[in-house]
Specification:
single chain; 662 residues; alpha/beta; Rossmann fold; GMP Synthetase, Chain A, domain 3; 8-stranded mixed sheet; 20 helices; binds 5'-O-[(S)-butoxy(hydroxy)phosphoryl]adenosine
């Protein structure tokens, strides 16, 4: 029986709760689960591990071993993510769609990869990797668009125990080079190009220089757009020339739960991106659990996540989560505004998607430019809406809820990080409540808390995780145990994980726990259009311009992107501010980091507020941009420079700045 148009939620006391229908349907609907799971957290995870995934051998040596701040889970047991995503479904789901791929060009047909197709293609790709010398534990870098071969390639790596390290296509070749270099990867998988906003964007031809620099041994190229890229003999290979001549079968490798499954680079507080390590077993268990519970993912569901594979959301929910459960996932190659702002709604309607998962920044753009466009489409197949990447403001929440969800669907506001591997905090569909702007409670049995500076629980402060943790959390930073300790396990000691975010305890409650609201980053990281960027990384990029003496980057509020990088630039003696120089700076950022980091604002200034020890006081810069109170200006050794800065940014906040009037 069709469930289209079902009312999945109801309003009580001004807040939304699951309706009876939702409670009946949902895998979990009894809030008692929160308490139950906490009573025996390790057993809770062990049971989920046995119930949700297939093991070749499930006789682990222990459930969890904790040598703070290092964890190990299920060691000694063996499994494989590719096996869990494909082989175990093959008997009953050979012809079921695994991936529905929507190309961007309108004159191209969508493509459906069944589980049978995946099984065949992944085995071939795995043998291509082996043929080219890739072995278990090798890092293979991807610079791949949203095309089916990307999924096949990732699953092929998993199959043989190689670590994929996927770099978002809006990062630059130079950013790819740095990541290849850090991971020591000798192979790159890329495409000739892909379609975005109606144009073919080149990949292979842009990356050649970087491949030379890292001394890559091989590069596999998928032909997507017939761009005929330059190929280096002996190093570069078109996938199509290799895959039919290799052995067509390849069994999934039996990997230890504690083997590394993949690396994913993310920005940290220093200029150098961190290679976050995820494990084979623990990651899979958490991905499986969160997929099933948070999205209430049933066998006949059609899951549509707009997240690109270059981000952790793309890994866990656009790719692995749905496939672990033998489900169907929708992949779209291009931009939400091509050929117009209805593309996503068309994709939902056409495929009768039951879940839709996206980021607030995209929703804000769609509200701004096409508020009523969802009305033109039948979106009644939807049951659950998801939000991720940044806080969702109540206004956008209401629009999403009413216009996209028809006032029928819960919004799961999912809070997590590259480091946590999967969703760790949200309201669950069968339990609620769903409150605009409030993320929710930790997934059982995870223990999130809000702490003040003295590590005491408080109502507004640092978001931390205490024991019990989740098996899906990072296993470290590649080659940098010190960085791992320093970034996550030093603020509150080695037993409390510091997320870098600030949060608030709200009055709402479920299962004996208060819902948390996530405010934003407390450190120097930016979230630009939901993408995490390090200010230090951007500053290093700007410093490559000869005329730049000093630079400070902070986030400036932006109504669609959340924030954009604002650059305060001091020039060397003799250099003059000019549009040409601005151009060079923008180019440098795009070259070193990528278009994803394009500056929103560049201010040329004569001085920057500094502490006695010469550290730029970013807090002042942020307050100036946000028109907020600056506080005691004497903490700067050169407070007189604030007048010029206030003029440059057009400050209209409450603080009196000597010599400046707004
Ligand atoms: C940072 C992690 C998680 C996958 C996408 C981003 C912010 C994420 C939410 C949310 C408020 C959120 C946090 C976090 N964030 N989800 N629902 N509400 N903030 O992954 O690049 O690792 O970034 O994104 O600041 O620390 P990421």
């Amino acid at each position: 029986m069709s469930e289209k148009g079902t009312q999945w939620i109801e309003k009580k006391d001004g807040v939304y709760w699951p309706s009876e229908k939702m409670k009946e349907k949902a895998f979990v609907s009894d809030p008692g689960i929160y308490r139950e799971a906490k009573e025996n957290p390790k057993e809770f995870w062990a049971e989920r591990a046995k119930e949700l995934i297939d093991w070749f051998d499930d006789d682990w040596n222990y459930i969890q071993k904790w040598n703070p701040p290092f964890f190990r889970w299920f060691e000694g047991a063996t499994t494989n993510l590719s096996y869990n995503c494909i082989d175990r479904h093959i008997d009953d789901k050979k012809d079921k769609p695994a991936i529905i791929w929507e190309p961007e060009p309108l004159d191209e047909e969508k493509k459906v990869l069944t589980y049978g197709d995946l099984h065949r293609e992944v085995q071939k790709f795995a043998n291509v990797l082996k043929e080219l010398g890739v072995e278990k534990g090798d890092a293979v870098t991807f610079w791949m668009p949203m095309i089916p071969e990307t999924a096949v390639a990732a699953l092929a790596c998993q199959r043989i125990g190689a670590w994929h390290s996927i770099v978002y296509t809006a990062f630059s070749p130079e950013a790819v080079r740095k990541r290849m270099d850090d991971a020591g990867s000798k192979m790159l998988i890329t495409a000739d190009g892909f379609y975005r906003r109606g144009k073919a964007v080149e990949l292979k031809d842009r990356i050649n220089g970087a491949l030379e620099k890292v001394d890559a041994e091989s590069c596999i190229v998928v032909n997507r757009a017939d761009l005929e890229p330059e190929m280096v003999d002996g190093r570069d290979h078109f996938l199509s020339n290799l895959k039919d001549s290799v052995d067509q079968s390849c069994e999934a490798e039996e990997l230890d739960a504690e083997d590394i499954g993949f690396l994913l680079y993310t920005s940290g507080t220093t200029g150098k991106p961190k290679g976050i390590k995820h494990s084979v077993g623990g990651y899979m268990v958490q991905a499986a659990l969160s997929m099933k519970w948070v999205f209430d993912f049933h066998d006949d569901d059609i899951f549509y996540s707009t997240a690109d594979i270059g981000w952790i959301t793309g890994h866990t929910y656009t790719l692995y989560g749905p496939l672990i459960h033998g489900g169907t996932t929708v992949w779209y190659e291009g931009s939400p505004d091509y050929p117009n702002l209805e593309r996503w709604w068309e994709i939902i309607e056409e495929n009768e998607a039951t879940q839709f998962y996206t980021a607030p920044t995209a929703l804000r753009m769609l509200v701004k430019m096409g508020k009523d466009l969802p009305d033109k489409h039948d979106l009644s197949s939807l049951r659950i809406l998801g939000s991720v990447g940044e806080p969702i403001d109540p206004e956008t929440w209401e629009w999403y809820f009413n216009k996209v969800g028809g006032g029928r669907c819960p919004i799961v506001d999912t809070y997590w990080q590259t480091e946590t591997g999967g969703i760790l905090l949200t309201s669950l569909p069968g339990m609620g409540p769903f409150v605009p702007g409030v993320a929710g409670v930790p997934l059982p049995p995870v223990n999130y808390d809000i702490l003040d500076e003295r590590a005491e629980p408080t109502d507004k402060g640092a978001v931390v995780i205490k024991e019990p943790f989740s098996p899906g959390m990072l296993r470290g930073v590649y080659k940098s145990p010190d960085k791992y300790k320093e970034e996550y396990w030093s603020r509150y000691g080695d037993k409390i994980y510091f997320s870098g975010d600030e949060g608030i305890v709200t009055e709402y409650e479920v299962g004996g726990q208060k819902l948390l609201k996530i405010v934003g980053r407390m450190d120097d990281l930016l979230e630009v259009a939901g993408h995490r960027l390090g200010t230090a990384e951007l500053e290093d990029a700007v410093q490559t311009v000869d005329e730049v003496a000093e630079v400070a980057v902070v986030g400036k509020p932006h109504d669609v992107k959340g924030e954009v990088p604002a650059l305060f630039v001091m020039l060397i003696e003799g250099a003059e501010p000019s549009d040409g120089l601005k151009d060079s700076i923008v180019k440098a950022v795009r070259r070193e980091v990528g278009p994803v980091a394009t500056p929103g604002e560049i201010y040329f200034v004569n001085d920057l507020p500094e502490t006695e020890s010469g550290k730029v006081i970013r807090r002042f810069l942020r307050s100036l941009l946000e028109d907020e109170e600056l506080g005691d200006m004497r903490t700067a050794k050169n407070p007189e420079c604030l007048k010029e800065l206030a003029e440059k940014v057009g400050y209209s906040g409450p603080q009196e700045i000597p010599g400046y009037s707004s």
